[in-house]
Write a structure and sequence with these properties.
With 454 residues, the chain is α+β, with helices and mostly antiparallel strands. The protein has 2 domains: 219 residues, Enolpyruvate transferase domain (UDP-n-acetylglucosamine1-carboxyvinyl-transferase, Chain); 209 residues, UDP-n-acetylglucosamine1-carboxyvinyl-transferase, Chain. It is built from 14 helices and 25 strands. The strands form 6 sheets. Strands 6-7-9-8-25 form a 5-stranded mixed beta sheet. It is globular and about 60 Å long. The chain binds ligand EPZ. Ligand EPZ binds next to helix 1, helix 5, helix 6 and helix 12.
Amino acid sequence: MMDMFCVEGGHSLRGTVSVDGSKNASLPIMAATLAIDGEVILEQVPQLQDVATMQQLLQSIGAAVEQHTDGTICVDARDVRSSAAPYELVRQMRASVCVLGPLLARFGTARVSLPGGCNIGHRPIDLHLRGLAALGADIRLEAGYIVAEGSKLRGADIDLCGPHGPTVTGTCNILIAATLAKGRTIIRAAAKEPEVEDFARFLNAAGAKIFGAGTSIVEIDGVAQLHDVRHTVIPDRIEATTLALAAAITHGDVTILNAPTTHMTYVLNAFNLIGIPIEATHDTLRIRAASIQRPARLTAEPYPGLPTDCQAQFMALLSTIAGKSLITDTVFPERFMHAAELVRMGANIRIQGNSAIIHGVTRLSAAPVMASDLRASAALVLAALAAEGRSEIRRVYHLDRGYHAFEQKLNQLGAKIQRTNDGPQNVVPRPHLDSLQPEKQRISYRHTEPGDHM
Ligand code: EPZ
């Protein structure tokens, strides 16, 4: 049985709602607990499916993990003996690759399944492997697993820039591996996302020596070990943006608490561009109905640019605004699976390369639609809130991966969303992506000196 949402559209959202902790800060931090020789207490960790999957992964290799209902997670990985992350867990969540760096750093060896296919586009991990090889690890691919070996990692000068800019989880993997390497590491083209900065803040609180996190050049002085640490995860800027867009698309009046507004500059710029009044203090947002909303040209880019994780949600809003809008995604150029489902609800969207051309319509119309990935499912909920009539959104398990109690939060603002089960008759086999098996091949990565042609 798969859960689905029945959404009765046309209700303006009003009231106050609070943002949870960041999924994309929590996952790499939880993975890094594998390299900490002590007790870790994490606060404000969101209760999400992906967090549960990461907890299961840590426990499967011997870590003690306790999750409390107040968002506190306690991890003690001192009894971990295995350095292998199995395919059946990694395939459920790409962020499992974040255990690669910690396991290698702690055990001198790591065996992590290559992540499976992904509906938002091509997601290689070559930059992760380039960075680990630069630190002296021997990297090879065996039967769909990455095998990394290197008991004496040493500092290096590493350029982590890829064809679509920096890598968020790749930067985290190299940060933790360099932290326990000998000597100094410089990471160039490091990801600047707030989640990476929070990751470094967490490691420094555990005894690491990381300087410049949140900028593109980060320096790390290796240390012998990391100790007990207590850390509060930053709020989730993507959830905050999604809730703000729910207020905007329903022409409501919503106050959002615990919002990391300093991490949302380009998001606030986009709201102003569209003509939606949004008031921000250091930790709250207030979005009020705008009489006229304007079409806009938006580009999803690496931080501090507009987050690619909000691209689908902005597309839903722009679909309801008269005039021609354009959204370009420079991070995941193929991240448009949600467009076809929005078209089923009456949106006028055409995909051209890594852009979506949107001609806004007066009103979307309710329809049965299917979620394809986490942020696409959020976009479909937003569209259904604005649509005339009652929409059905299938496969909302995608939504549960990254939003806690999403329908409850929206319903307490006046939405009318009912979670039911889809029933066996509607179950359609998962797309072929699930059956993709990484081909069996041996490839090796070698350390190259800066200036070598990779
Ligand atoms: C993180 O994924 C986030 N996930 C994603 O959020 C987010 O969309 C993405 O960063 C970009 O901001 C987590 O933090 C758990 P990347 P990540 O490595 O680290 C290419 C969500 O909805 N690339 O920064 O996997 C890659 O193909 C999720 O919460 C390489 O070429 O993304 C992409 O085009 C979805 N080689 C670009 O870089 C590599 O080795 C950015 O990817 C790695 C990445």
